[in-house]
Amino acid sequence: MITKNNRLQKFLKILLLGVIACFVMAPILIVVIISFKTEPEFMKSNFLPGFPLHLDNYIKVWKDADIPGVTFTSLTITVCAVLGQVFIGSLAAYALTSMKFRHAKLFSALFLIPLVFAIQTVIFPLFMIYKELHLLNTRFGLIIIYIATGLATCIFIFTKFMQTVSKEILESAQIDGAGHFRSYFQIMLPLTKAQISTIGIINGLGVWNDFFLPLMMFTDGSIKTLPLSMYTFTTEYGLKWTLVSADIVFMMLPMVIIYLLLQKYIIEGVAAGAVKG
């Protein structure tokens, strides 16, 4: 009887996961199908696959949206933002957990305040400040915003993990003459590989897929990210959905390739981060 119950539970779990997977994959599949259609075919049957498959949309998007250029821009911004978040966030977490100073708990609480507020609530004063500092339409300016908005999550994840690290390890290093920076770089930072993987996934995807901040900060059209390149196919009559769908496929491809190459480390990082963090 116990065996039958276990089999039933296993079947129900697989069924539930299958249903969830279908809901997740359905929009992606629809976008891929639309990307191979012509506009007349799309108007006749929106979501049904059609033959022959047309590659004209991909060729036009590659040229008109400058896919290599905007991909390089998105990749540069994402990598720099995540590296900045990891470095500053881990340093702050190390200071909060390993260095004794007054009001450490107060600072820990203050660092978490940005989690309560969305970036949209401060976008107007931020825009005016950037305008005065001439940081609009610069990659550097956008990277600073991403680092600042992602620090709260980073500090929270790193702090929770570093609080579990044995203090004897750091004390032994200090007895051997290691200062705080050496203890951080040689002891604490290597222990946080799982947390770095988790932050890279969560914050990296957030930066890569973000449409709002590039739209607000790149006002003159001289710099575009991959999500922003979809505006290339906007007309006075609306969006050209076949071209936009091809653009979305180009936007998904780098992340899919990275996941396929690093899925072992990504899964291990998320699992370890969930357990240890």
UniProtKB/TrEMBL annotation:
Keywords: Cell membrane, Membrane, Transmembrane, Transmembrane helix, Transport
Membrane association type: Multi-pass membrane protein
Tagged with keyword Transmembrane helix: yes
Pfam families: BPD_transp_1 (PF00528)
UniProt xrefs under CDD domains: TM_PBP2 (cd06261)
Location(s) in or outside the cell: Cell membrane
Example of a GO cellular component annotation carried by this entry: plasma membrane
TM ranges: 12-36, 72-94, 106-128, 140-159, 196-218, 238-262
Highest taxon listed in the record's lineage: Bacteria
A biological process from GO: transmembrane transport
InterPro entries noted in UniProt: MetI-like, MetI-like_sf
Family membership: Belongs to the binding-protein-dependent transport system permease family.
The protein's name in its UniProt record: L-arabinose transport system permease protein AraQ
Species this chain originates from: Robinsoniella peoriensis
Phylogenetic lineage: Bacteria, Bacillati, Bacillota, Clostridia, Lachnospirales
